[in-house]
Design brief:
The protein has 386 residues and is an alpha+beta fold. Helix content is 45%, strand content 13%. It has three domains: 9-128, Orthogonal Bundle (Butyryl-Coa Dehydrogenase, subunit A, domain 1); 132-241, Butyryl-CoA Dehydrogenase, subunit A, domain 2, CATH 2.40.110; 249-382, Butyryl-CoA Dehydrogenase, subunit A, domain 3 (Up-down Bundle), CATH 1.20.140.10. β2 (149-153) and β3 form a beta hairpin. The longest helix is centred in the C-terminal third of the chain and has 29 residues, at 279-307. The two termini are 13 Å apart. The chain binds flavin-adenine dinucleotide.
Length: 386
């Protein structure tokens, strides 16, 4: 059974450490210039068009894509370092992040050439925000039960129905969406879905914000009422999207963003404990850092396997499962350790603010991008257990 699992021991090469120094210097300059406050909880999920354009100008979006589409032909490991530093610094990279991580790679594989030349360079310049249109009321984990319909029309398709929990739809320029183009067949219940590129400004699309526990409205209901999508915006095979919808999972599920979403509370705890922490604080912190280090080694390993052209779907699912549970529990662990600190520690107010915010963020972490139960199903299948 263990032979089916493979976490290659990857070390980041020297060019990654050079790049890390450049990224840290850039982020420090941006903090000094007041672009963002690394202590402000939730900044990692903020949208900042100006900042995204600056990141694009640095060459840190579309890093692994071909130069002819505006990319930079760098490695997955270099991209890993940029993602890691941005998340750890709580930098406002949300505008370009989904396009960089998964929408761009899907377009690279399945979009017609003229669309690639139009859209990919704009993603690389940090100009475009993408949303993922998969979940619907009544079909989340079971993606292949999607009902929102695309009906063939003259020169394109007419869309009717709705998507839900669509992150960034309120600001996105485009959505990559799965729509039903045929009913499922008896032999294959996954048949009949097609992937589309949808311009969010298309008439007939309404975006209704959904407020979350944090008080923010980061995701939405998106309603399609006779919205028209042209033929050249079909991505890949008609009725065959199930073949392509699962192929990006290792990219989506294994990156450092999958265990660093509440990382700021750990940094604040380190500040609060100071250079000479008392025994209980030191032991608790040591335990958390050791767990984080292990998760990171596993996540870097998956990035290395992606770079080597492998498809570590099971390993990526394990990183997301362990990572999101860890980042979900982190706020409570930090709260426990902070309980023994003197009331007058200097960063008490910041720590309390961060803990309050991270506690309301935590429940979603094991749901977004595939729930814990679904991931465990994938892992069990990969290990031949079901
Ligand atoms: C913050 C956030 C952002 C999101 N952003 C997006 C987005 O941008 N685009 C998008 O399309 N979706 C998005 N989602 C939706 C997300 O993908 C779904 O919520 C998720 O897939 C679960 O689907 P569901 O909510 O319909 O729950 P359900 O699928 O109804 O699941 C309910 C419960 O049943 C369990 N369950 C379901 N099926 C099985 C099974 N076969 N075996 C065992 N247990 C099972 C689940 O684990 C869960 O605990 C987002 C969700 C969150 C929380």
């Amino acid at each position: 059974m263990t032979a089916l699992l493979q976490f290659d021991p990857i070390r980041l090469p020297p060019e990654c450490e050079t790049l890390r120094a450049e990224v840290r210097a850039f982020l420090a300059e941006e903090v000094a210039a007041g672009t963002f406050d690394p202590h402000q909880p939730g900044h990692g999920d903020a949208y900042n068009r100006g900042f995204s354009k600056q990141v694009g100008a640095k060459g840190w979006i579309g890093m692994t894509w071909p130069k002819r589409y505006g990319g930079h032909e760098r490695s997955q490991l270099e991209r890993y370092v940029v993602t890691e530093e941005f998340r750890a610094a709580n930098a406002p990279a949300h505008l370009h992040f989904v396009a960089d991580r998964q929408s761009g790679p899907i377009l690279l594989k399945y979009a017609p050439e003229h669309i690639k030349h139009d859209i990919l360079p704009r993603i690389c310049r940090g100009e475009l925000c993408f949303a993922i249109g998969m979940s619907e009321p009544g079909s989340g984990s079971d993606l292949f039960a999607a009902k929102t319909k695309a009906t063939k029309a003259d020169g394109g398709w007419t869309i009717n129905g709705s998507k839900i929990w669509t992150t960034s739809a309120q600001i996105a320029d485009y959505m990559l969406a799965l729509f039903r183009t045929s009913p499922p067949t008896k032999e294959n219940r996954r048949h009949g879905l097609t992937q589309f590129l949808v311009r969010m400004k298309t008439p007939g699309i309404t975006v209704n914000p959904i407020r979350q526990m944090t008080g923010k409205a980061g995701f939405n209901e998106v309603v399609f009422n006779d919205a028209f999508v042209p033929d050249d915006h079909v991505l890949g095979e008609i009725d065959g999207a199930w073949k392509q919808a699962t192929s990006e999972l290792a990219y989506e599920r294994s990156g450092p963003e999958r265990f660093l979403e509440t990382f700021y509370v750990l940094l604040e705890l380190i500040r609060a404990l100071g250079p000479e922490p008392e025994l209980r604080g030191a032991e608790g912190l040591g335990r958390l850092v050791a767990q984080l280090h292990t998760l990171r080694r596993m996540s870097v390993s998956v990035a290395g396997m992606l770079q080597a052209g492998k498809e570590p779907v099971v390993e990526g699912s394990i990183v997301k499962d362990l990572g999101t549970i860890w980042e979900q529990k982190l706020p409570n662990r930090v709260r426990d350790l902070a309980a023994f600190l003197e009331p007058e520690i200097l960063n008490r107010a910041t720590l309390e603010d961060q803990l309050a915010f991270a506690t309301t963020v935590a429940p979603k972490l094991t749901i977004q991008g595939g729930t814990t139960e679904i991931l465990r199903g994938i892992i069990a299948r990969g290990l031949g257990l079901r």
